[in-house]
UniProtKB/TrEMBL annotation:
The chain crosses the membrane at residues 53-74, 86-107, 119-144, 164-185, 214-235, 256-274, 294-316. This is G protein-coupled receptor 68. It comes from Ornithorhynchus anatinus. The gene is GPR68. Signal peptide: none annotated. Residues 65-313 form the G-protein coupled receptors family 1 profile domain. It is a multi-pass membrane protein. The keyword Ligase does not apply. It holds the Pfam family 7tm_1. Gene3D superfamilies: Rhodopsin 7-helix transmembrane proteins. Keywords: Cell membrane, Disulfide bond, G-protein coupled receptor, Glycoprotein, Membrane, Receptor, Transducer, Transmembrane, Transmembrane helix. Residues 1-34 are annotated as: Disordered. The keyword Disulfide bond applies. InterPro entries: GPCR_Rhodpsn, GPCR_Rhodpsn_7TM, OGR1_rcpt. Residues 1-10, 18-29 have a biased composition (Basic and acidic residues).
Length: 403
């Protein structure tokens, strides 16, 4: 007979195991970051190298260009041209974005460390991202307005008024402002591994961001770009069918339409494609690191739209060239007048002026009067329904006006 002694079960008590697992999870949770943006270590080199260059270029070129564009839109509104309403709203959106660039420049130069309060980050982020969709909305409005002017100049004339343009512009602004409210209910400033306060950066992307990005892509970009392409296709078709339009004028319109579409796609298409890619597949830090540089490069491309808008929609017009020339001549005349007055005070020259400067004081009011002219002779509209002429001249828009 052998005495069989039972050995103690080495397996731990189930209750003790659960306690150990709970403690382990608690310890690991304490070590984990509180937010997703710091769960990935991202190389922000592109922000310190390329971003400052782009921001400075857009700031230096975009600010004066958009100020002149705003003045040109004002002249169009004075001439009762609804296109001026869209141009002014588009320019205001670009100027608001340009005003936020010094803050973003400071942010990237300090190695992605937001130095201001959380509210300023939220406002600058909204100006950065919502400017894209406000610009897309007004570019779409301009294209539809030009299409109606060419293809249906009389049927939809009551929709092409200043009051109608103001109402449409209000809808665009309200739509984007309501969308921006979505950002107020989510935290936008986080601390990364280096204890930097990052602004509008989450890696990997969060669930609520995926939902808003789907809305941005389909409603904010894809739908407007379809309308824009349809409008410009209709313009080209109407111009092609026109027998009264000169060949060189047709070529000019085609080049302008194609350049507008190409620049629009170059500024906005790469960003929205990558935005959709991130929303669909970004779930790991490895993916976020791989796509970071190209994604932020595409985001920088959208900034150039602030410079392209005045060039495409204002400065290609010979009418604008004349207005700017008049403004330049007025400024030069004013400076010559001031210089002449100063020299007379200093040297008290009472001799007759034979150099032609005595004409400046009488020419200056005439130049200013021409510069602020509110209309042109539109009797040419009654001579025919040439699409290119209707396109450019309807409601005070001259034949050289932008599409």
């Amino acid at each position: 007979m052998y005495n069989v002694t039972e050995k103690e079960d080495p397996s731990p008590d189930p209750s003790e195991g659960e306690v150990a697992r709970a403690q382990k999870m608690e310890n690991s949770t304490e070590k984990m970051p509180v937010n997703n943006s710091s769960s990935c270590i991202i190389d922000h080199t592109i922000h310190q190298t390329l971003a400052p260059v782009v921001y400075i270029m857009v700031l230096v070129a975009g600010l004066p260009a958009n100020c002149l564009s705003l003045y040109y839109g004002y002249l169009q509104i004075k001439a009762k041209n609804e296109l001026g309403v869209y141009l002014c709203n588009l320019t205001m959106a670009d100027l608001l974005y340009i005003c936020s660039l010094p803050f973003w420049l400071q942010y990237v130069l300090q190695h992605d460390n937001w130095p201001h309060n959380d509210l300023s980050c939220l406002i600058c982020g909204i100006l950065l991202y919502e400017n894209i969709y406000i610009s897309v909305g007004f570019l779409c409005c301009i294209s539809i307005d030009r299409y109606l002017a060419v293809a249906h100049p009389f049927r939809f004339h009551r929709f092409r008024t200043v009051k109608a343009a103001v109402a449409v512009s209000a809808v665009v602004w309200v739509k984007e402002l309501l969308t921006s409210i979505y950002f107020f209910v989510h935290e936008r400033v986080f601390k990364d591994e280096e204890n930097h306060r990052v602004c509008f950066e989450h890696y990997p992307i969060q669930l609520w961001q995926r939902n808003i990005n789907y809305y941005r892509f389909f409603v904010g970009f894809l739908f407007p770009i379809c309308l824009l392409l349809f409008s410009y296709w209709g313009i080209l078709r109407a111009v092609r069918k026109s027998h009264g339009t000169q060949k060189n004028r047709k070529s000019q319109i085609k080049r302008l339409v194609l350049s507008t579409v190409v620049i629009f796609l170059a500024c906005f298409l790469p960003y929205h494609v990558l935005l959709l890619v991130r929303s669909l597949w970004e779930a790991t830090c490895e993916f976020a690191n791989n796509i970071f540089n190209i994604y932020h490069f595409s985001l920088l491309l959208t900034s150039f739209n602030c410079v392209a808008d005045p060039v495409l929609y204002c400065f290609v017009s010979e009418n604008t060239h004349r207005d700017l020339a008049r403004l330049r001549n007025s400024c030069c005349a004013f400076l010559r007048c001031a210089k002449t007055g100063t020299s007379r005070e200093l040297y008290q020259l009472n001799t007759p002026n034979t150099s032609g400067k005595n004409k400046t004081p009488t020419e200056e009011p005439e130049l200013l009067r021409k510069l602020h002219a509110t209309g042109e002779d539109f009797s040419v509209l009654n001579t025919g329904n040439c699409p290119s002429r209707i396109l450019a001249e309807t409601d005070g828009y001259q034949a050289e006006g932008p599409i």
